[in-house]
Specification:
Length: 355
Amino acid sequence: MSTAATQPCEGASLWQVLKRTVSEWSADRASLLAAAVAYYAIFSIGPLLIISIAVVGMIFGQRAARGQIQPQLTQYFGEGPAKFIQEMVAKAGFSPGLSFAGILSIVLIVYAATNLFAALQQTLNVIFDVKPKPDRGWMALIRDRGMTFLMVALVGLFMLASIVLNTVLATITKGGLRMLGGHSGASAFLLEAVSFLVSAAVFTGVFAMLFKYLPDIKISWRETLIGAVVTAVLFTLGRIGLGYYLSRASVAGPFGAAGSLVIVMLFIYYSAQILFLGAEFTEAWACRQGQKIQPAENAMAAGVKSSRQRKKGEGQRAAARQGSPSKKGAGHWWTGGQGTQRGPAYKIQSSGGRA
């Protein structure tokens, strides 16, 4: 926790909120947290896309769903990494059915896909300065894993919404330009603007759900939505900048065949840092509004000890005040059970033998 976090923030100016955001983002070591998320994402992106394609395929069909997701991947990562991800999805395919192998493959794919959101939950807990209670029980763990699965399903739904909105708005924009006799330059600009607005709207919904339900915190919807909008705008702008940079810089060149994997990891790494910056802004903004974020019922502040830890500490302090046998050496063979003097000679003397 930085020095800015200990200062009063209620009623702070926008500049102070931004300063606190950057200070906390640096103090929480967002780059290290983003590296952990990028690592988990590499193993989860295949199963996550399989589930997303299954959700989109309920409307468009499996073949059409894969065709719709391909342009989205190319837009984010570039043509080479997009093909790499598609090959990963194809090789991670499973055989649905009621057989043992089919059920096992579904369970493993769901578990692998939820690992990314489990990692995001832990990192967001660090950002919001909370931690789960150590004695919260198995039901809380099952509930957390269930929440990560809901996040996976929501990603598929938001991807479906993004595809539908992009298609509808692009059709409306092209039709309006034809009616107004617009030229190709204006058409391209309007399509880019529409794509930006749709992406920002979709990511606002994604980040709002992440901030509201994934970490172990209590936060109002008003502060959640404001933070989600800011994060979505930053994320969309960052995605455009990252795409421009990665498509023109020879980042993957030194890595040879692993270049596509490196580009995907770099994209996720920098995107995760933008996400954490938005989370820090959400916390700073909530504090400014007098709605300081509180731990949920199954969590506690990061610097607070649980009741079990407090009882253990009180017991250790009481033992230290009364005198611990292990410290005085009572009952051990090298002291003869009396005092702190040591050695075989003392043991013989204390038992009545010669010194």
